[in-house]
Amino acid sequence: MAALIELFKDENSYLRRSAANALGNQTTLSDATIAALVELFKDKDRNVRWCATNTLNKQSTLSDTTIAALVELFKDKDSSIRWSAANALGNQLTLSDTTMAALVGLFKDEKSYVQWSAANALGKQSTLSDATIAAIVELFKDEDSDVRRSAADILGNQSTLSDTTIAALIGLFKDENSSVRWSAANALGNQSTLSDTTIAALVGLFKDEKSYVRRSAANVLGNQSTLSDTTIAALVKLFKDEDSDVQESAADTLGNQSTLSDATIAALVELFKDEDSSVRRSATNTLGNQSTLSDATIAALIELFKDKDSDVRRSAANALGKQSTLSDATIATILELFKDEDSDVRRSAADILGNQLTLSDTTIAALMGLFKDEDSSIRWSAANALGNQSTLSDATIAALVGLFKDEKSYVRRSAANILGNQSTLSDTTIAALMGLFKDENSSVRWSAANTLGNQSTLSDTTIAALVELFKDEDSDVQESAANTLGNQSTLSDTTIAALVELFKDEDSSVQWSAANALGKQSTLSDATMVALVELFKDEDSN
């Protein structure tokens, strides 16, 4: 690097420029190197000056002296250097009021790309001072629409804006330039709570001649957790907008409302007939956020299972998945989706059923049929769908055990996890779980050991197999085995001795799992108690 810095003094400008460029990929430069680059800001060759400023672009932290030197370049006669200097400041997380004021000054630069660079630099500041914001608001009066738009864009990154600033942004809703109106609306998007006046002004933009302005206004309202009936009614009117993107935004915006009226839900259901699949999908997504849907709405969602667009079918399935109780007729229709040619739809259908606390034998049998699906993610979803069932039949448990041989480890793991919800497992099932202790995937071994934790009584053979897992190379598996043994009311001296040995494990979580397991035993020998005390002392000393 010293050799490159030496080239900064070479009489050949090409070499000076090349040396500066060579440093451009370094994310961290020394103070001495940065100081040398700053010296190049005075170079008579514009290309050298540009390369020097551009090289500083990747530096996340610059000193006050360096920043001051970059600000001086705002006066450079070459616009590309002014642009580069502003860019370099854009990577700084925090800028002083003086520096921000200088960047604001660049909004009046004759070159629009310099203005944009200054705007971007300010836009990355999470917090702007009142003075800076006031200066930016003044730019709303600038005759150049690009400047007005940039000024509005900057304010969009502020999480909290004063009433005065918001009022100024609302004033831009009447700007003759549609891109300015769009930016002004967007700038309000990060405000968690908007006043009734502001919301009314945004609703006023629903009549804007430009569809992207109408869409922006609708999107901004989507961040409000509670909207008035009047505002919701205005959004519903947008369902008839000539632009499908506006319709989609209006539907999406309603998705954040926890409770929608029957009239609003009916209007969303009407969108199921829209020719644009993205609109139909948005409508279904929004309904999916409602905790309770009427039979009529559920029936309409089921009809979407026949939609030609798989994304719409999947969205309809997801919307139903959030319903805690589905009728037998609805479930029967969902089962029909198991035959769909689209794997995403089959998976979504299985996922829906996973939220039901009680499934019929017929439904469970259909889910078991999916265990043979060629798509592993569907086999996984089908197994998971059984997770809420408190009691599974022997046939169902046997089918889950069959998944222990699945080629995908996450399917094997899921099958083992589901069995963990059963309070009593047969010796055959427990033996199959023990077989997973030798699985090549550590997460499967972990799940198998963890699943046995719900069994109140384990045989000596099973306990011995769990003790063998203390030698596993994965500490999580060791920990799981120890935790499972901790659920046994009585452990043999041999097992207790093996747990005490885990106190020497290099992983503290394994040590403490062993200690917790022993702590659940009603009676421990003096030697074991001494070992526990020693472990506590070691922890205190650390």
TrEMBL record:
GO terms for molecular function: oxidoreductase activity. It comes from the Eukaryota. Pfam families: HEAT_2. SUPFAM superfamilies: ARM repeat. InterPro entries: ARM-like (IPR011989), ARM-type_fold (IPR016024), Armadillo (IPR000225), PBS_lyase_HEAT (IPR004155). This is PeptidaseCc14. It comes from Colletotrichum sojae.
